[in-house]
Amino acid sequence: MALKSAIRDLRNKPDLLFLRLPNLVSLVCIVVGVVWLLLLPLNEYSRRTYISENALLPGQVHAYFTGSEQNIFRGYKREIEGLLNEGAEPPARREDTTLNPTYVEQQDSRMAYMVDVANMSTEYPKKLRSILQVAGLKVATQKYEYTSAGITHQGENVYGIIHAPRGDATEAIVLVAAWRTADDELNLNGVTLALTLARYFRRWSLWSKDIIFLFTPDSKSGTQAWVDAYHDLHPASVQPLPLKSGALQGAVVIEYPFEHRFHSLHIVYDGVNGQLPNLDLFNTAVAIASGQMGIGANLQEMWDHNDSYEARLQTILRGMAKQGLGYATGAHSSFMPYHIDAITLQPKGQGWEDEMALGRTIESLCRSLNNLLEHLHQSFFFYLLMESQRFVSIGTYLPSAMLIAGNFTIMAIALWMRTGYHLRSAPSEPRTPQKEQNPAPVTEKTEQTARISGPPVVERLLALPLTLVTGLHLLGLVPLWTLNTLSHQFFTSVTYTFVVVDVVLPLVLAALLSNGLGLFSPIVPQQYLLIKSFSLLLLGLCLSTLATLNFSLSFIIGLLCAPLSFIGRLQGLSAPLRYGLAVFGLVLLNLLSPPTILLGACWYFGVSVETVLTQAAFGWDVWGMWTQVVVWCVWWPAWLIGCVLLGSSVF
Amino acid sequence: MSDVPFILALQPRTSHGLGAQTKLRHEVMTVLSLFSLLWACIVFLWSAPAFASSDYHEQLFLQPFPQSSLLASFNFRSNTSQASFDNQHFRYFPRALGQILQHANTKELHLRFTTGRWDADSWGPRPWNGSKEGGTGVELWAWIDAPNDDEAFAKWITLTQSLSGLFCASLNFVDSTKTTRPVVSFEPTGDHPESSNLHLLHGALPGEVVCTENLTPFLKLLPCKGKTGISTLFDGHKLFDAAWQSMSVDVRPICTRQGDCTIQIEQTVDMVLDIERSKRPRSNPIPRPVPNEQLVCDTSKPYNSEDTCYPLEKVTEKDWSLSEVFGRPLNGICPLADSDGSAEYPVCIRVPHERGIFYTEGTKEFKLDDGFTRCFDLDPSKPFDLAIPEQPINIQAPLDEPILHAERTIVGHGQERGGMRIIFENPSPTAAVDFIYFESLPWFLRPYIHTLQATITGRDGLRREIPASDLVSETIFRPAIDRERGTQLELALSVPAASTVTLTYDFEKAILRYTEYPPDANRGFNVAPAVIRILNGVDSSPIYIRSTSLLLPLPTPDFSMPYNVIILTSTVIALGFGTIFNILVRRVVLVEEAEALGSQTIKGRILGKVLALRGKFGRKETKVE
Fold first, then answer.
1. In chain B, how long is the greatest CA-to-CA distance?
2. A135 in B contact zone (CB under 8 Å)
3. Helix (H) or strand (E) holding B191
4. What is the DSSP string of B391-447?
5. Where is region (Disordered) located (chain A) (predicted)?
6. β pairing state of A151-162 and A113-115
7. pLDDT at A382
8. Which range among A149-163, A607-621, B317-331 shows the weakest confidence by mean pLDDT?
9. What are phi and psi for residue A137, nearest 5 degrees?
């Protein structure tokens, strides 16, 4: 009864129902969403990792990669070093210039920059070919070329296949060694280790899957070209693969870019667009590294993780930042869109583990993958890791982003309902005499509700709001197209242009809307609410859908957009106060605009805007990265509409 | 010794072999009653001429390949006359198989057990021109004499069920969905009377794992059953550690012009052993890293030192011997084997004549004229071994270039669609290759034949799209029926000289009923290898190539998790959607307005009138009270 009367009371107070309550509920949603995320690192909300696929049996086999194999390793290494000393450039040496914009000034902008990722000399592919061939592998090469943001990336992949001795070419495991690591260092030891392992694995007859050793010039484009061609989905500038095997079941990337011994293994697992490998693969790597080999395992660059709340939270947040940006964090990332689970193993720190220990870890990992009877599917694909042995799964963390996305939907629905009424300043009015005279159906229920008069129903004017919201979302295609098409040297200036546009455009639009400019009748206040309603509805819809695909991106954008729920056209204030508040609000909003945040983040992390945008364009062109679409077609239009509404209070 | 004349009588042409006598004594002991003796004599008198064609041959052919591989090709062949076969008088012909064939009206049978891949780049063309190998797993095809298709299929099922029991293989799973009736891909190798109404049926089990359980029944079909002769070399551990291995059973009738028919059974085992791997002792099979001092290093490298070694590989051909590679020596010769008068020696090896070979004393060596092959006539009483010392590689027995390379892969990704890509490469600079490409696809892989596209890469290395009809001269296509039969596709193709042809077509993956998933670990579904029959000339025997089998991942439910997830999410969505939908479509209005709005519609008007009437009535009643 109490609930019933509460609802009845609510009905009687429309301004509470339509004005205060939605704001309150939205705010609560946002606060609970953030607090939810902050609770995740607690023991009560997270779980210890476990191996779900029993066939993996991590660390159950003895790894024999020791002894004289190290002599071979040194021999191969000296052989490759010989090439370096002879003056042949390491394959990816000139790739440094890709991300370093210093060479921009001296070059003619019309010229396509030939970034010689793989070095024009074919010394390296030739050497790798000969070593692999002698070791008894089937070897092939693949040339590729990508053009993005006016930079040409080209190179030559070399790969060798160990045929499973009694296999039927239906399944394969991939081991990748890139000449340049994800951090753009020369991966001499990694490549040599892969070569030594290839020769060593060839002797074993227990492989049930083919093992492919892939040597790419860099960690960005090489694997992408290879894996695209493997599935026959490559662009014309990439050569098809002359040699193939079966369905790829897993991939491990080997990096070892320094000469000293290492202390722990850093496992990188983020894929393009925030896709993650099956948790079982990560768990297996951790179990083998720490359990069998006694090497510590790190993740998310948390070198001294003390398992405290802060460290756990920091790990989660770093993971979310990477996932949200959705870029490829290593050579393994390109495998993820094809549902091939992949990780990168990076040795880190100063310690006493040598390359043979890394080799044994990889041997054991390959043996585990070799045991697989089915594709990895048992464990989680959606998770947040907070420590190498602790995680939360999607069921636990998803409500956080969903609540934040839900706040927009709640607000949108409230606004929609509100536009259906003429709100009055005085909620309770005396009964109109008409109603008393009305003899018609007077039941007990209607008698009570009829005591107060509700606001009369009004028509909604939908055409303008719908057109505006659709138009502004389509307008998002302009920056998307511009930033993915232009040559990289224009990126900085384009960003600043967008900052300026973001200041001016909302004001222009607001002025247009308020005055009509003679093109259409001036806007009525209800339409402002409808514009906001549609914009927030779309935002809530997109973000809640996105939350199931890329939780982190949805969460981050949801937080950045949170103010949009609470701002709108200011009304009922004195003109100077309104102007002041509107200008202040606009300044604050402009600080939260996509280009400003981009500039701010770049300044904070000390990277140039051009680097970030070049990378983003490369991601769009080569990796199939969708982050920009979300930024320019979901976030930016919603932000723009918020600014337009706030700006309209000035006019 | 009452049975001695009997044996002599049974073997009018052969008079050797103590082993044969002991062997046959067992058979004879079972029929030692007087009646059976008499009966046997009658049979002998009646069928004596036919025994002339009853014989048995066996041969082992060895050929070392580069990269320390060794092809060992075992061949066992025996004949029996049609008459004694019909009378179930089996001597060399295995009774178990013979009775099955008679029961299933099977006139010609080909059964293959294969694992691994033939590496044509290193090993050259296939042994027996590929005619004695099958696709990965088990493959069976037979010509069955039956008046119509249905009866032929019934007999086929009888045949597969019986063979399944005989060979311990899952052949009973060859049902109608896995059975095809190829039109042009296979032709009978035997001589069949024109009057017979033969039906060819073909079935394949690409997922079948061939193992020792299949080898044991295979050996039991042999007259010497692995006790003596070349079949003593079959050791399950070594045989099934081979890089590639194929076992075949072929039964066919051979007739002379005069109409005398014999039934020939030929069993072969071909395997390619990795010599290094096979030489590892069974007590220590793990390929541990060798001790430092045993490393073979390239000492010419400037950095070569105690701890740095650039490995030097394959400068010499490794030494090996039969007993090392097979784990045991060859135990004499099978006394039943017909060795006199024929040019077939029990053991032959193809290495250059310059290479030294050591062999057991008492063995006669014959070098053939081709410069590479030499054969050995063994001393029947002694175990035979053969050893090749380590020698530098200078002359290798030449390998022919394969006529055609073929590769088939699945492309694309995702749960719904995919594509098939088949690459044919013709290495010959002058001659085009004509062949028939035969594919049998499971029903849940639905090909779109209209998407068949061809790309050709010629000498100039340029890829060009051409209409598939330019290359395909004939298409035989039998579409699938869900859950009843698979797709059968036969294409007669021609690849021009020095070109590579790529055929692609798209397919759709069907969604299976949940009971149709096998209970095993869900690795995906196997698609049988494609069979390529190369037609080079009318007279010469065809060359067969088989592609690798494919793994087709189908959309697979996790069978428990989605169930929970679907139920939970449906509930949540129903609740959430219902509430929001309710709020959106329903106007919250006050009662007076509802009346005002409602009274405008016909239904509202009627209802209003009814309510008004009821109101009046009610009021009257109260008044009465």
1. 136
2. yes
3. none
4. EE-S-----PPPS-EEEEEEE--SSSEEEEEEEEE---SS--EEEEEEEEE-TTEEE
5. 425-451
6. parallel
7. 92
8. B317-331
9. -95, 160
Ordered by where they begin, the domains of chain A are: 14-41+399-423+454-647 (no CATH), 54-388 (3.40.630.10)
Kindly tell me if the per-residue pLDDT of A334 is higher than 90.
yes
Tell me which chain A residue has its CA closest to the CA of residue B586: A417
The two tokens of residue B349 are: 């090896």
Share in percent of chain B as helix, strand, coil (round to 5): 30, 30, 40
Closest residue in chain A to residue B522, using alpha carbons only? A374
Q: Do B309 and A168 touch (CB under 8 A)?
A: no
Digit-coded pLDDT (tens) for A373-403: 888 888 899 999 999 999 999 989 999 999 9
Quick one: pLDDT at residue B392?
74
Q: Which two tokens stand for residue B53?
A: 């064609």
**pLDDT of residue B457 exceeding 50:** yes
Q: How far is CA B382 from CA A170, B309, B366, in A?
A: 45, 45, 19
Pick from A65, A75, A453: CB nearest B309: A75
Lay out the sheet containing B543-546: strands in order across: B472-478, B487-495, B433-441, B531-534, B543-546
Say if residues B155 and A201 touch (Cβ distance below 8 Å): no
The pLDDT, as a whole number, for residue A464 is 85
Q: Is B522 in Cβ contact with A244 (below 8 Å)?
A: no
In the DSSP assignment, the letter for residue A489 is G
Stretch 612-631 of chain A: residues touching chain B, C-beta under 8 Å: none
CA atoms within 13 A on the CB side of B181: 15
The answer to whether B341 faces chain A, any CB pair under 8 Å, is: no
DSSP state of A17: I
Mutate which: A168, A212, A432, A447, vs B, most B CBs within 10 A = A168
Q: Summarize pLDDT for A171-217 with one digit per residue, the tens.
A: 999 999 999 998 888 999 999 999 999 999 998 888 999 999 999 99
What angle, 0 to 180 degrees and rounded to 10, lies between the N-to-C axes of helices A609-618 and A491-515?
A: 90
For residues B391 and B394, give the distance between their C-alpha atoms in angstroms, rounded to a whole number.
9
Beta carbons of A136 and B595 less than 8 Å apart: no
A247/B553 CB distance under 8 A: yes
The pLDDT value recorded for residue B523 is 81
Task: Report the distance separating Cα A79 and Cα A648, nearest Å.
Answer: 71
A20 at the B interface (CB within 8 A)? no
Is A631 a residue whose pLDDT tops 80? yes
Q: Does any CB of chain A come closer than 8 Å to the CB of residue B303? A: yes
Contacts of B211 in chain A (CB under 8 A): none
Smallest Cβ distance to A66: which of B289, B294, B526?
Answer: B289
pLDDT in tens, A27-79: 999 999 999 999 999 999 999 999 988 889 998 999 999 989 999 999 999 99
pLDDT in tens, A91-125: 543 343 444 433 333 333 333 333 343 444 567 88
Give B405-514+521-552's CATH code, choosing from 3.40.605.10, 2.115.10.20, 2.60.40.740, 3.40.50.1370: 2.60.40.740
Residue position matching structure tokens 């409500």: A399
Residues A366-388: b if buried by 16+ CB within 10 A, e if exposed: bbbbbbbebbbbbbbbbbbbbbb
**The residue to which tokens 């033939």 are assigned:** B118
Q: Could you tell me which residue, A20 or B172, shows the higher pLDDT?
A: B172
Q: What is the mean pLDDT of residues B132-138?
A: 90
Inter-chain touch A244–B309, beta carbons under 8 Å: no
The answer to whether B63 faces chain A, any CB pair under 8 Å, is no
Tell me if chain A has a CB within 8 Å of the CB of B477.
Answer: no
Each residue of B504-534: b (16+ CB within 10 Å) or e? Answer: bbbbebbebeeeeeeeeebbbbbbbbbbbbb
CB A542 within 8 A of CB A629: no
